[in-house]
Design goal:
The structure is a homodimer. By secondary structure, chain A is of the alpha/beta class. In chain A, about 45% of the residues lie in helices and about 15% in strands. Chain A has 13 helices and twelve strands. Chain A has a six-stranded parallel β-sheet, sandwiched between helices. Chain A has a four-stranded parallel β-sheet with strand order 7-6-8-9, with helices on both faces. In chain A, helix 11 links the parallel strand 8 and strand 9. The mean pLDDT of chain A is about 95. Chains A and B meet through helix 4, helix 5, strand 2, helix 6 and helix 11 of A and helix 4, helix 5, strand 2, helix 6 and helix 11 of B. Strand 2 of chain A pairs antiparallel with strand 2 of chain B. Chain A binds a DNA duplex through helix 2 and helix 4.
Chain lengths: ~350, ~350
DNA sequence: ACTGAAAAGGACACCGGTGTCAAAAAAAGT
DNA sequence: ACTTTTTTTGACACCGGTGTCCTTTTCAGT
C-alpha cells in the first residue's frame, strides 16, 4: 500500500487501476473513445481512492483556469450578491470557483485592466453584469482572448449563448397597466441615466404602455436620474413641483424610488394616499421602506445560474433559457388616485 | 528574435538575459541570494519583454494558488460587497485574485464543504466574515490545511495577525452616551441573536454605558432579534407594548432598526419626536429610510484591505492595524425625549 | 483463418514555474 | 599564490495534469 496521507494523484489512480495516466485523463474528461469496461474500472478506483483532479495542474496543461469571473461595476449590492449566490448554485460540486472583480467603467483604463486580468488569470469565462455588460468592446475583448462570456442585460445584446436577459420593457408595461387600472392618468417617470440600456428599455416600456392607453406623456412628467438615491429625490422634487402634479410615479429603480418617497414626505404628500410610487429591482429597501414599495422583481439567482451554466455546461437544460420574466411585486405604495 | 505574439515565459526571459530560468525565478521571488548586478539585468529583461509569471504554473509548483478566498454567510449585502471592494484595493496590481464562497452556517456539512473547497483550490488564504469568523473550528481547519486566514470580528477572537476587529462595545457606549446627553433615560435595546459575538459585544457596551450612567435596564427594555428586519419589527412591538415605554431604542443592526421604524409607525409613534432610534452598520437603508437613521458605521473597506494585506504582505505597514474604530453617524432619528 | 480498418490504450514530451543539490565564482585566510 | 569558505548560479527532476502520435486490440469483411 503506497497510500500515504497525501492526496492521490492521477498516477496513483493509474497504477492502482493498471492503466496509463492518459487513460485516467480520458475518463476524467469524458472522452468517448473508451471501452465501457475500462471506464468503469477506472471510475471505481477513482471513487475508492477519493481522487479529485488537481485544478491547478489542469489549468497549466490546458491553458485555461477553472475559474469563472464576475465583472461588475457596483450596481446595487444586493443584485451583485444575489448573482454570486446564483452562480454558486451552478458551480457547487464542480471544480469551478468564482472570482469577482469590481471594475470602474469610468476609468479610461478599464479595458486595459480587464485584458491584463484575463491574460493573467486565464479565466474559463466571465459574467458581465449591467451596465458594463452593454459594452460591446468588452465582449469583443473576451472573444479575442478566447475567454467565454455571458452578458446579463435588459435587452437582446448578443446571441442567446452569450446572454441572459430580463424583459424589462414588458414588465414596465405591466406596471403602467396596473397603475391605470387603479385609476391613474397622470403618471410620471424617473428615467435611469443616459447610456444605460436598462434605462432605455424601461423608458420605452413606459412610453409604449402610456400610448397604448391613450395617455399623454408631457415633458414635465419625465425626469432623469442616475439610479442613485439622491437623484431620485431631486427628480421627484422636479416632478412634484409643477402645478398639475402626477398621481403616480414610476421610478426606474428602487433607490430612486426611495428618493421619491423622501421628496414626497418632505412636501407633505402622503404615499400612497396622495401619490403612488412604483420602483424597479425589488431590492431590500423596497420592502423595508414605509410604506412597503411595489416594485418589479427579477429572478437574479436563476439568471445567474443559467449564465454560469452557459459557460461551464452549455448543453445542460438549465443553460438553455435566455430570457427571464421580471414581475410586478405588489406592496403598499400604490392606491387609487385622490379625486380632485 | 524568437519573439512571437505569444506571452513570454520564464524561459524567454532566461534566454534573453543569458541566465538560467532558476535565476529568473529567484528574481521573481525576491530571493536575497542574488548579486545585485544579476538582479538588475534580469529585471530589465523582464520589463523589456513585459514578462509576467504564470500564476497557474506557480500554483502547481508551489502547491498553493494565488487566490484569496472570501467565506461568508450572507450577512448584509452591502457589507459583503464593500468588503470585496476593500480586498480589491489590496490586491489590485498583484497577481492575486479574489474568489468568493457563500456558505451556509446552518448546514451540518459546512466544515466538510469548506475543507473540500480548500483542498481543491489550495487557496493562499481566506478571509472570514462574521458570523462564521467566530467559529473556532473553522479557524483550526485553516491552520490544519496550511491555509492562511484572517477573521473579521467585533472582538479579540484571535492573534492580531489573524484578526481585524472593530470596537463595537465602545461605539455602542458612545451611542448610549449620546442618547443620555439628549435627555433619554428609558433606553431599550434590541439585541442580536444568541451566539453572535457581535451581538454580545454590542449588548455589553449597552449595559456598561447604562450602568455607568446609573440607569436601570429592566427586563422589558431588552428584546432579542435575529438581525433581520422582521425580528426588529416584532422586538420593537414588544418593547413599545408595555406601559412605560422607552423613549429611545438602540437596535443592534440597521435592518432591525428599520423594523423598529415600521413598528413605531404602525403604532402612530413618530420618530424622532416620540421615539429615538439608533441602528448599527450604516447600511444604505439607514440613509434611505425616513427619517434618516443615526447609526454606527465601521470602516469596512479599510478593514478588508488590512485583512487582505495581512495575508499577502504581512510586513506591509497597512497590514499592522488590527483594531478599527466604529463611529457614530448622526442623522435625524434622534431627538430629545418628549416631556411627560 | 486472414486482412484491413477502426477502436482503444499507452509512451513521452510539454505546460511554466519551483526545489534540490552540486558546480562555479567570488571572497577570505594563511 | 593556493586553499578554504562563502556566495551565486545552474542542471535537472518534479508539480499533476493534457496533447500528439504511435502501437496494440478488437472486430467486420471476405
Amino acid at each position: 500500500m503506497p497510500e500515504t496521507t497525501q492526496k492521490p494523484t492521477i498516477n496513483d489512480v493509474a497504477r492502482v487501476a493498471g492503466v496509463s495516466k492518459k487513460t485516467v485523463s480520458r475518463v476524467i474528461n469524458q472522452s468517448p473513445l473508451l471501452k465501457q469496461a475500462t471506464r468503469t474500472k477506472v471510475e471505481n478506483v477513482i471513487l475508492q481512492l477519493g481522487y479529485r483532479p488537481n485544478p491547478q495542474a489542469r489549468a497549466l496543461a490546458m491553458g485555461r483556469n477553472f475559474l469563472l469571473g464576475l465583472l461588475h461595476d457596483n450596481p446595487n449590492a444586493q443584485t451583485v450578491l444575489n448573482f454570486q449566490v446564483g452562480v454558486l448554485d451552478a458551480i457547487r460540486d464542480t471544480e469551478f470557483a468564482l472570482v469577482v472583480r469590481p471594475v470602474d467603467r469610468r476609468s479610461p483604463d478599464m479595458l486595459k485592466d480587464i485584458r491584463s486580468f484575463l491574460e493573467l488569470q486565464r479565466l474559463y469565462g466571465v459574467l458581465l453584469l449591467p451596465p458594463i455588460s452593454e459594452n460591446d468592446d468588452l465582449a469583443q475583448l473576451c472573444r479575442d482572448m478566447g475567454c467565454g462570456y455571458v452578458r446579463m442585460g435588459s435587452a437582446k445584446l448578443d446571441h442567446a449563448e452569450h446572454l441572459v436577459q430580463s424583459n424589462d420593457s414588458e414588465s414596465v408595461e405591466s406596471v403602467i397597466d396596473y397603475l391605470v387600472e387603479q385609476g391613474h392618468r397622470r403618471i410620471a417617470i424617473i428615467q435611469g441615466p443616459e447610456g444605460f440600456r436598462s434605462a432605455k428599455e424601461r423608458f420605452e416600456g413606459f412610453v409604449a404602455a402610456m400610448s397604448r392607453h391613450g395617455l399623454a406623456v408631457p415633458d414635465d412628467a419625465i425626469a432623469r436620474g442616475t439610479y442613485r438615491f439622491d437623484s431620485g429625490l431631486e427628480a421627484a422634487n422636479a416632478l412634484l413641483g409643477g402645478d398639475r402634479r402626477p398621481t403616480a410615479i414610476f421610478a426606474s429603480n428602487d433607490e430612486m424610488a426611495a428618493g421619491a418617497f423622501h421628496a414626497a414626505r418632505s412636501r407633505n404628500i402622503e404615499v400612497p394616499r396622495d401619490l403612488s410610487i412604483v420602483g424597479f429591482d425589488d431590492s431590500p429597501i423596497a420592502a423595508h421602506i414605509w410604506p412597503p414599495m411595489s416594485t418589479v422583481g427579477w429572478p437574479i439567482r436563476q439568471m445567474a445560474k443559467a449564465a454560469a451554466l452557459k459557460l461551464i455546461a452549455p448543453g445542460d437544460p438549465g443553460a438553455q433559457q435566455s430570457c427571464f420574466p421580471a414581475e410586478l411585486v405588489r406592496r403598499a405604495s400604490v392606491a387609487s388616485p385622490p379625486k380632485d
